[in-house]
Amino acid sequence: MDADTRTDERKKYILPLEDKRAILARVGGKGASLARLASAGLPVPDGFHVTTAAYRSVVAHNELQPDILSALGRVDRAQPSTLEGAAKEIQLLFAEAEIPPDVANNIVQAYAALPGSNPAVAVRSSATAEDLPEASFAGQQETYLNVSSPEALLEATKKCWASLWTARAIAYRARQEIPPEQVALAVVVQLLVPAEAAGILFTANPVSGQRDQLVISAAWGLGEAVVGGLVTPDNLVIEKGSGRVLSRDTASKEVMTVRVNDGTAEKPVPDSLRRVPVLDDAAAADLARLGEQIEQLYEMPMDIEWALADGKFAIVQARPITALPATTPAPPAEWGVPDPDGQYMRTSIVDFMPDPLTPLFVTIGVPEINRGMQRTMAEMIGGSAPLLDNYMTTVNDYAYMYMNLGCRDWLWILSRMLPAFPRLLRNADHHWREVARPRYAETVNRWRSTSPDALAATQLLDGAQELTAAMADYLTTLQVDTLGAGAGSEGLFTQVYNRFVRREGDPPAATLLLGADSTPIRAEKALYDLGQWCREDSELAAYLQDTPSRQLAAALAGEQPLPDERGEWQRRMRQYLDQYGHTIYELDFAKPVPADDPLPLLETLKLYVRGEGTNPHERQGTLLERREAAVQATLGRIRGLRLRLLRWTLRLAQSFSQAREDSIFDIGLGYPTLRQLLHELGRRLAKAGVIADPGDIYWLEHDEVGRSATALDQGTAPENLIPRVEKRKTSWQAKRKLAPPHQLPEKGRVMGIKVDAFMPVGDEEQSGNRLKGVAASPGQVTGTACVLLGPDNFDQMRAGAILVAEVTTPAWTPLFAMASGVVTDIGGPLSHGSIVAREYGIPAVLGTGVATRRIRSGQQVTVDGTAGEVILPTE
């Protein structure tokens, strides 16, 4: 072979990094981007491309294509296991494949031409269907760092080629309808930057969408810990143009990626660096300027990976930001109330509505709750209750209870409500069990037995309205039957026990109430039993552990059964969700219930399959033994009136504390059916072009949905509401950042009653590194905080973490099995979080008002459930 032929062959398989021929088809998305950056003179580490021609040569030389297509032909996207099977089969083909001598020789020669002897390089996959503005595919293929010999380079290159066929890459291309015959993979080989620090730079704010800001994430060591989410990095927001640091969050950085022999490893960050800022203001400004240059080069916002060594920045990747939100408007500054003379409070059932409400719930749910309260009072007391007109309202879309008592209101309370109270208390448990819940269940079962496909659009809306009204009647009945009675009876028992019975060294009053077999506890025991059944089959246990929870959730939602023992697990898990999956995360029906989003259940199930967590049967048995011992010891040493009074209050408190938890669990009994009706209606509206996605129906108001449904039934064209929906979504995001006042206006007393005990601690009271709250469950623990703002974050929960949330409902109970402590913004000593935390024996501080805004995931915090304090690290 003459010299010219060898040169042409080398250009076919190898290109210099900045070569003008390094286009997408030859070097993939990542390679083309690096070539563009290098050609523009940006600081990109030197290296070369192994082109897609080399990949195709390997496939042809080993005759792999028929086997690849055969494996892909057996994939069923509804069955995740088939994706994994195809991926393993194809990757084995590459592992056994030979690299043709001409390809191998050219790779080795290009590597030898790099400076140094056996230099350490980064070997990065670069697919022809990745990092595109219309199909971002970042992180789907593999990268190998600190490769430092020709043999290791060839092996890493072959692994990169095989990574074109991971399960997630196959699934992604199928969703994007990219034919498998058209894809190929190039490899980028670059000198490894011996990074002291690394991270990610966004040239627009990915949270708010603001184009005049840059956001930097930075951590010590190589960048893999940041990209892979293994470390909580420092976060800086930079003003574009000036380079001024607008905000800085310095994290406690626990791990870093470092070089080891022939690879990398995660090592603990030295104590001397954990709380030290990675970048000072000057370095952040320098990096920001590089980011602005790259954005100008591409003429669009960019997601950039960077590294820092010897005081100099290197750019190792840049791709377009494909999911940048619209610019979020400034949140409202005023909290104007409908009645200037009224009093508005965020308490009671408002605890189930921590976020701004969606437009559909504001216009269906809130009016039905108000009507439900009037219907409940008429049924249980007789006559309308003037004080309950506009019982619930919204301010900036946050729910508030309205209170303003005039003479008519006081007359109704004195003449009707107070005389009826003893009767209501006597009948409360019976009324809930025999009247309220069966009535709710009857409405749910009637609509559940009707196929949404068979209903007209207006009938779907009617069904959603009727189910919401049934929920509202049940919810408002609970305020009399179980919530008020439960709180009152437990408070009364606690006062009697503490004042007349308890001696020094005696257990707290809560000990005499623990161990009840409530519905949330029965649900937990059923999940634990399912986990133990899964453990008996090692293959099934391995499948559950190795499969991402979101993939398992998709398998549960799929119509086709899984094969073998996985099918039996699927059946049992679906049965579990049918029985327990209706309990709410939040009252707004736009938020999914566990039946729709079982991620926390699946994470807890995996915990049990691993043999971790507490056996709930044993825990409940221990609590019952402790309770009975405390009860017998207490009753055995008192006599007379004190004994009768304690027996009576204890019986009431034990009965109503369980009834309260059982009844709260069933608030969402109709939500799975209600959401099915709304999603079918949303599907039809999306098909007609009214909204972009079926889930956007929650961003419409009731009358808008009504007009659109009528138009669908009449065969006329409904109005296009897509722009209105997008505007409301961005407005909601802005309001979501607000901290709604607990009272409007702020008062120490309402109707002469001191309200401090019922409300979270005010923002102005929380200063320094100690957050005050309600001492809900005793004990002290120090651990890593995990801040969860809702079901979308539940997969971030880890065993042993401190659970930090706005509020918890029974649907959060599975996470308590993983938590070592609990902190909330909202809640008190009688709320769900308190009860469950005491059942689990973990410290809890509730009602801090600001925990989710003051605590960051990854921080080490101390929860003192005895003193009612959360201690944050000192900055």
If you had to describe this structure to a student in words, what would you say it looks like?
By secondary structure, this protein is an alpha+beta fold. Among the domains are: 3-191, 2-Layer Sandwich (Dna Ligase, domain 1), CATH 3.30.1490; 197-320, 2-Layer Sandwich (D-amino Acid Aminotransferase, Chain A, domain 1), CATH 3.30.470.20; 515-640, no CATH class; 760-871, Glucose Oxidase, domain 1, CATH 3.50.30.10. Helices cover 46% and strands 15% of the residues. The protein is built from 27 helices and 27 strands. It has an 8-stranded mixed β-sheet with strand order 20-27-26-22-23-24-25-21, covered by helices on one side. Helix 5 (80-96) crosses helix 8 (167-175), helix 13 packs across helix 14 (457-501) and helix 15 (519-535) packs antiparallel against helix 18 (564-580). The termini are far apart.
Task: Report a brief summary of the structure.
Helix content is about 45%, strand content about 15%.
The CATH class designation of one domain is Alpha Beta
CATH architecture of one domain: 2-Layer Sandwich
CATH homology-level superfamily of one domain: ATP-grasp fold, A domain
- Report the portion of residues in β strands: 15-25%
How many strand segments?
Answer: 27
Give the strand line-up of the largest sheet: 20-27-26-22-23-24-25-21
Mean pLDDT: 86
Helix proportion: 40-55%
Unreliable spans are 1-5, 131-139
| Structural class by helix and strand composition | alpha+beta
Spatial shape: globular
